[in-house]
Description:
2 copies of one chain form a homodimer. Chain A is of the alpha+beta class.
Amino acid sequence: MFSAKIKVTLRKSILDPQGKAVEHSIQSMGFSSIADTRIGKFIELKIDTSSEEEARLVTDEICRKLLANPVMEDYSFDISKMNGEKN
Amino acid sequence: MFSAKIKVTLRKSILDPQGKAVEHSIQSMGFSSIADTRIGKFIELKIDTSSEEEARLVTDEICRKLLANPVMEDYSFDISKMNGEKN
């Protein structure tokens, strides 16, 4: 059993109005040192397989086909073996 | 200048209907080995300070006061020094 932690972020060239709104809120709280705030998605899932290579391939396919919009978004992920498992 | 990468996730005890919907989509694509899908937010921001300790304190305060709902959500973050900076 593996755990995948996936980050989906807007590409740098794409405007991020949600990030801008959050940045304004942060600055209005008095933190003037904050810049370049960007908001993305974080997805966690478990993959029931004994092969890390297969877990990686499955996660990549799920990101490409479902979780990320390839025109506007980039994704990255970490795969880790879950504790308490022997396979 | 430091970069903070923040993850805000629903607490384990809170139902995540968005995660369930994504999980059903993944399974209907043929990936039956996927379970426990949960969706959170990923926030990146830059902090203009020369002290890692200050960057950490500022980020923690922003998470507590603005980014995470302390009743329903947990947060974690990594602080890293940005390349090309000497301070």
